[in-house]
Design a protein that fits this description.
Oligomer: single chain
Shape: globular
Order of helices and strands: EEHHEEEHEH
Strand order of the largest sheet: 1-2-3-4-5-6
Number of strands: 6
Radius of gyration: 15 Å
Structural class: alpha+beta
Distance between the termini: 42 Å
Number of helices: 4
Strand content: 15-25%
Length: 147
């Protein structure tokens, strides 16, 4: 089931049929520090296995932002690949997109939504994210061996 939220200037939708996969791949693989050089096949598989949020200009229908959530739709969610086209930045769209993600996930009941960011803490704090209180509790497993 897809969901759409509309304002005067844009709409946010979870309809996977509306995603511009070429644009998303270009944005992330060439301009997002966390996904530079990501293969198109990898991006397509990530989209297919995730809950996706596209933001579309209401006048042109063009996709102007994207967010992806890895979730079981019940207990856990990881917000990732949040990207706003440079021409649409500075208007609060990133904050509204993340708020829409939060509002979509809340009724599903996950205990927490995780994310990682180098430089956008302020965007996420506006919608309730905060730094880990006990980061030593969390661990990671790197599966890709550096060459």
């Amino acid at each position: 089931m897809s969901e759409t939220t509309t304002s005067a200037a844009y709409e946010i939708s979870t309809d996977p049929a509306r995603l511009d996969a070429d644009r998303i791949h270009r944005w992330l693989s060439t301009d997002a520090y966390w996904a530079l050089g990501r293969d198109r096949d990898v991006q397509d598989r990530a989209i297919a296995g995730s809950l996706n949020f596209g933001v579309y200009d209401t006048a042109s229908g063009e996709q102007i932002a994207y967010a992806r959530v890895v979730t079981d739709h019940a207990t856990f969610a990881w917000l990732c690949d949040v990207y706003v086209d440079p021409v649409a930045r500075g208007k609060g769209l990133g904050t509204e997109l993340v708020a829409a993600v939060r509002d979509h996930l809340a009724p599903l009941g996950p205990r927490r939504v995780m994310l990682a960011t180098e430089d956008a803490h302020g965007v996420y704090e506006k919608v309730g994210f905060k730094s880990l209180e006990n980061p030593l509790m969390w661990m990671t497993l790197d599966l890709q061996v550096p060459s």
